[in-house]
Structure formats: C-alpha cells, structure tokens
Specification:
Blueprint (H helix, E strand, L loop, with lengths): L3 H24 L4 H4 L7 E2 L6 E6 L3 E7 L6 E9 L9 E6 L8 E7 L4 E4 L7 E8 L5 E12 L4 E7 L2 E6 L7 E8 L10 E5 L3 E4 L7 E11 L5 E3 L9 E4 L2
Parallel strand pairs: 1-3
Antiparallel strand pairs: 2-9, 3-8, 4-7, 4-9, 5-6, 5-8, 10-11, 11-14, 12-13, 12-15, 15-16, 15-17
Length: 248
C-alpha cells in the first residue's frame, strides 16, 4: 500500500506541475503573430524610393534598411495606408532596431488615411526593420512605405536679449567641430561688413557691443575641417532659421 507520505509527495508534485504550466501560458505574449515576422526574408528598402504593397487580413510585411554615419544626415520613415482609423481593425507599423521582439522596438503606431512620419529617433550605423501588420482577418490594406534622408540644421534653441548684448543657445550637431554665428541689424544685408561673425566650439555664445533698442537677426551653422584642413560646412548643413531679437 502507498504510504501517506508518498501520497502527499505525489500531490505536491502534481500541484507544482500545474502551477508551472499556468505560468508558462501566462508568460506567452498575446501578440504571438508579431513575433513570427520573417526578418531574414525582409525586403531591402532603397533610400528615398517609395515601396507599395497590399496586406491581406492579419498578415505582415517586413522591410529593412541601413543607416550610415554621415555628418548632418538623418532619416525619416514615412508610412501610409488606406486602413481604418481604428486600433482594433487598422494597420499597425513598427520600427525596430533589431530582431528581438521584447527589446528592439523603437515605436509602434497606427497608420490610416494620411502619411505618418517618424523623425530622428534612429541609430546611425544600424540595420533597422519596418514591420507592417494587419489587425483584422476581414480587411485588406494597401500601403506605401519610404525611408527619406533628411538634412539637419544646427537650430537655434533660444536667443535672449540683454543690455547691449544677445545670448544665443543652439543645438549640437553630429560631425560639427565648430559653430559659426552671424548677427546683423535688421535691414542690413548678409555678406557685408555690417555682419558680425563668431566662431566657437561651444553651444552658447554671447554677442556683445550691440545697440540698445535696435533689432538684430541671428543665424548659426555647423562646420568642420576637411581633409586639407580647411573649414567647411558639415555635409548637408544649412544656415539655421533666422531669429530676431530687440536689444535692451
């Protein structure tokens, strides 16, 4: 006959097995389909070239593209779909920096009716994936996806006018070794002796000896040395948008 201790032992083992089985079921993510993306079969997207297609039901489409480390250059993912503006039945898009379902998703958004854009959140020098996935077995989704290269500017964050001076803060730009700041009175022309030019590696500059009560235009751009040691604009860099302030 089976002893009481053996019966208790068997009951404990059976209970633990049941608990582990429930835990494993609970640990499986609800969106199992999204984990079944064929990253190895992803179609390579050419930059600045739209790709169109159709997704039926709950299928998905996967594209890949690689970013490069070009100073002053970044990337914008643009996605369009005719799917409904409804989270339960619309087309979803994901941007991923790798193939790990749990950790590599950069963003996840619903695409419907108008172009949806993702700005500047991409790691340079990495392979990224765009996953488009239907969310309803009854729907068919036409879509268009594109990766655009965009030019970055050393944008002015703020200009603060003080007593006969102006303090300018501007955004850091990849590849920049210095920043060129120009200041002139409103009504004067750029490229003349009326323009004051300052070169600095700092991200804040104070322009002194300004006239009280006068308005000034300020702009900034990023530069670096080329192979010959000459100062040139960072590739694709432009002058920032002009800011106007009135000196106290």
């Amino acid at each position: 006959m089976t002893s009481v201790k053996q019966r208790i032992s068997r009951l404990v083992i059976a209970l633990m097995t049941a608990i582990l089985a429930v835990g494993m079921i609970a640990a499986v993510p609800a969106d199992v389909h999204a984990q079944g993306v064929d990253y190895y079969g992803a179609k390579t997207l050419a930059l600045n070239t739209p790709e169109e297609g159709t997704i039926k039901g709950a299928d998905n489409a996967c594209y890949s593209f690689k970013t490069t480390r070009v100073p002053g250059m970044n990337y914008r993912v643009v996605v369009w779909s005719d799917g409904p503006d409804n989270a339960a039945t619309g087309l979803w898009a994901e941007i991923r920096k790798g193939q790990n379902y749990d950790y590599d998703r950069i963003t996840h958004f619903l695409v419907s009716g108008t172009e949806t854009e993702l700005f500047d959140d991409l790691r340079l020098g990495n392979t990224h994936y765009i996953v488009l996935e239907g969310n309803s077995a009854q729907n068919t989704y036409d879509y268009r996806v594109e990766v655009k290269t965009i030019k970055k500017r050393a944008n002015i964050i703020k200009c603060v006018a003080g007593k006969k001076k102006i303090t300018v803060d501007y955004r850091k730009m990849n590849g920049a070794q210095r920043y060129q700041i120009q200041c002139k009175r409103v009504g004067k022309k750029w490229g003349t002796s009326a323009v004051k030019t300052i070169n600095t590696s700092k991200l804040r500059t104070t322009i002194t000896k300004r006239l009280s009560g006068k308005k000034y235009n300020i702009r900034v751009r990023a530069q670096h040395r080329n192979a010959n040691g000459k100062w040139v604009n960072v590739p694709s860099s432009k002058w920032s948008k002009v800011k106007t302030v009135k000196v106290k």
